[in-house]
Task: inverse folding
C-alpha cells in the first residue's frame, strides 16, 4: 500500500505538489489548491475583489484568481459571465475547448497558441468558475511550454480546489 502511495506521488502530474492558500479579502474563507511551489506572487485586493497572480518558474505553471461581485449568484452564472470574456482571447485554440461541471465548479480547458515576439508558443489552460458568498471566482491555470503532461498538470490543479472556512 505504501509503495502505491509513493508511486502515485512520483507519477503525479503535479510533482512536488504543495498546498497553496489564497485568502479571499474581507471573507471568512480561503481557497486551497495543490500546486507546484509558487515562487512569484502578486496580489491586489479592494473590498471583496481579488486579483492574484502566482507562478512556478521551475515548472511553468501560472495561476490567477480574479473575482467579481456582479455575476455571483451561482456557479453557472459565474461561468457564463467569465467564460464569455475568456473566449475573446485571440490566441485561444477553439477546437481544443472542453467544458464540464460538478458540484464544486464549472470548468473549461483549452490550448492557446500563436506567436510572441517572433517565437511560436503553445500552452495548456484551464479555468474553474464558482460562486461563493456573493463572489464569482475565475481560477485560471496555465502550463508552458506545452508538453505531453501539460493538460493533466492543469486539470489536476483545477481538480484540487477546496474551500476552507
Result:
Amino acid at each position: 500500500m505504501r509503495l502505491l502511495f509513493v508511486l502515485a506521488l512520483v507519477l503525479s502530474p503535479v510533482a512536488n505538489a504543495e498546498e497553496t492558500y489564497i485568502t479571499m479579502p474581507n471573507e471568512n474563507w480561503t481557497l486551497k489548491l495543490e500546486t507546484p511551489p509558487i515562487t512569484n506572487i502578486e496580489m491586489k485586493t479592494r473590498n471583496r475583489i481579488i486579483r492574484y497572480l502566482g507562478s512556478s518558474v521551475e515548472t511553468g505553471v501560472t495561476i490567477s484568481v480574479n473575482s467579481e461581485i456582479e455575476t455571483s449568484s451561482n456557479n453557472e452564472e459565474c461561468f457564463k459571465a467569465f467564460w464569455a470574456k475568456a473566449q475573446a482571447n485571440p490566441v485561444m485554440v477553439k477546437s481544443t475547448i472542453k467544458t464540464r461541471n460538478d458540484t464544486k465548479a464549472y470548468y473549461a480547458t483549452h490550448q492557446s497558441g500563436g506567436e510572441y515576439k517572433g517565437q511560436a508558443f503553445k500552452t495548456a489552460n484551464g479555468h474553474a468558475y464558482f460562486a461563493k458568498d456573493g463572489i464569482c471566482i475565475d481560477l485560471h491555470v496555465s502550463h508552458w511550454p506545452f508538453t505531453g503532461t501539460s493538460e493533466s498538470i492543469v486539470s489536476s490543479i483545477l481538480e484540487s480546489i477546496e474551500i476552507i472556512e
In short: The longest strand covers residues 119-132.
